[in-house]
Amino acid sequence: MTVAVVLFTSDLRLHDHPPLRAALAAADEVVPLFVRDPAVHAAGFDVPNRAAFLADCLTDLDAGLRRRGGRLVVRSGPVVREVCSVVAECHAAEVHLAAGVTRFAHRREELLRKALGERGVALRVHDAVVTAVPPGAVVPANGDHYAVFTPYLRRWSAERLREVCPAPRGVRVPEVVRGEAPASRAEVSGVSPGLPAGGESAGRERFARWARSGLSGYADRQDDLAGDATSRLSPYLHFGALSAVEVVRRARGAGGPGAEAFVRQLCWRDFHHQVLAARPESSVRDYRTRGDHWRTEEDAARDIEAWRAGRTGYPMVDAAMRQLREEGWMHNRARLLAASFLTKTLYADWRIGARHFLVWLVDGDIVSNQLNWQWVAGTGTDTRPHRVLNPVVQGKRFDPEGAYVRRWVPELRAVESPLVHEPWRLPERERDGLGYPSPLIDLGEGLARFRRARDRD
Ligand code: FAD
Question: Of 265, 367, 371, which is best to mutate to test ligand 1, by the most ligand atoms within 8 angstroms of its C-beta?
Answer without folding.
Answer: 265
